[in-house]
Amino acid sequence: MSATVSPNEDSSSTTAPPVSKICEYYPDSRILCLSSSSFLMYMLDFGAVNAETGGEIVFKSSDSVLFYIHSKNLEFMSEGFPPVDNIIPPRPENPVVLTEDSTTLEFLFQFTYPRMPPDLDDLGFDGVMKLAEAADKYGIHQAMGFCVQELRRRFTQSKTFEIFILACQHGHEKLMYELAPLLVHRPLSQFVHKIPVKLYVPWSLYHDQFREQPLPLQLAEKHLTATKQFGNLLIPAACMGACVYSHHHQFWANQIEDWRKRTIEECLSCCAIGAMIDSSYAAAPSEVRGGCCTMYKQLMDDLKKEFSKSSSIMVAPRRFEDFVTEYREAQVRFLCPLGLYRMYYDN
Tens of pLDDT along 298-321? Predict the structure, then answer.
């Protein structure tokens, strides 16, 4: 797949405008699509309206690359483009100009074709975020789902705040609730104008639970810094033994050091420490979660219990999800008699 930047518009230039190769996967494809509204099977004929690329709808990226896309693909696989019967297909000399760059659109439009989804490993964090924003903007839900999976798999440890904001803005509640404990220690001012009002109110209530909670810095130093010699390895003092595989030990040693730094440098609350440990373990490769590494799993469980003892909260803190549900129910009770709840929910 290749795409190059279009030449500057110059009357003396004879170079043809470059196009993305995305549509060459299915230049004359015929596929079956199931209409969810009528449960009827439609045979869609994607005969090559444009003999070279096969697509009759022409888009232009922000960096001047042309994309020839089949209109029926857009009609059935996205919600952000009008039905083909309601538009006059644009031509190469007058394409639909989009604000996204060619790399983002190259990945995005692949999700509208009957093929295996593209591998997103080549995209860095910024690339996946751009793709997620575009997928939400144009209603290509399959692409958005893959972006969320990729963000959860690769970036939740290093880009927690940015992913949480994305989840809040686009309604990915499961991801939002997973990341909430990792961010509850941050000042409320960091979330103003970044998350919707309907989530900011529950977030402020959730945040207030931990306002007076002491930060377990001494516990972090005690349990995550103290080490003992085990053969030729240094392992946490709380561990009963060491893993038989040195690279497993090195993985967990790096994880524990990361926990210590984050706990101290970011002033993590007890709740945030527990969530950090849980998310680290869930994201760890399966080979380092086996029976040979049970002492590290035991260490994690012991750490969470120890940190929870330092909390000044006498009862278990309520989840962010609980406050969101409570706030929604209150809005329903207040707004439904006025006929305004739908307006609130949509915004």
Answer: 777 777 776 666 554 445 678 999
**Short-list 147, 154, 112, CA closest to 133:** 147
Residue 33 β-bridge partners = 42
Show the low-confidence residues of the chain (pLDDT under 70).
1-54, 82-92, 211-246, 291-292, 306-316, 335-347
Range of the domain at 80: 22-138
283-294 pLDDT, tens digit per residue, is 778 777 776 677
Rounded CA-CA distance 311/271 in Å is 9
In a domain, 83, yes or no: yes
Evaluated on CA atoms 296, 301, 303, 304, the torsion sign reads positive
CATH of the domain at 47: 3.30.710
pLDDT digits (tens, 9 = 90+) for 89-101: 666 678 889 999 9
- Residue 102 and residue 65 share a domain: yes
Angle (deg, nearest 10), helices 246-265 and 217-224 = 160
Mean pLDDT of the chain: 74
Instruction: Give the sign of the dihedral formed by CA 115, CA 117, CA 122, CA 127.
Output: positive
Same domain, 121 and 189: no
Asked, for residue 144, whether it belongs to a domain, the answer is no
Residue 252 inside a domain? The answer is: yes
CA end-to-end span of the chain:
39
CA distance 269 to 184: 8
* E strand or H helix that includes residue 66: strand 66-69
52 in a domain, yes or no?
A: yes
C-alpha span between 230 and 306 (Å, rounded):
24
pLDDT at 33: 32
Tell me the Cα Rg of the chain.
26
DSSP state of 19: B
Same domain assignment for residues 45 and 114: yes
